[in-house]
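Dear Dr. H.,

I hope your travels went smoothly. While you were away I took the liberty of generating a structure for the chain from your last submission, since the lab meeting agenda had it listed for discussion. I wanted you to have the full record in hand beforehand rather than looking at slides cold. The sequence, exactly as received, is reproduced here:
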Amino acid sequence: MNDKEKRVALEALISSLADDLRETVADIEAGPQFTKDHYEAYMTMMGAGQAGAGEGKAGREVVALALVKAGANRTGVVTALKLSTGESLL
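The corresponding predicted structure, in token form, is as follows:
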């Protein structure tokens, strides 16, 4: 698989996860904020991982990108990613 094929596959994975997460993200965004920008809820989702997203830091980054694509608060996702990996992709 060349780099372009890998990028297309990754984008397809992120889009698929975003579709799966869209309803959950809407519920989180509509619910009460227990932490600023719902970062705790998003950090929990990144830590739990999603089928096919992979494990560890790379898996959390894929889930983070899917969360943002699904409509999650970007600041909350970035905060969650920073806290769980020590750095930010977004």
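Two observations you may find useful: Residues 20 and 44 are 16 Å apart (CA to CA). The chain has one domain: 3-85.

With kind regards,
E. W.
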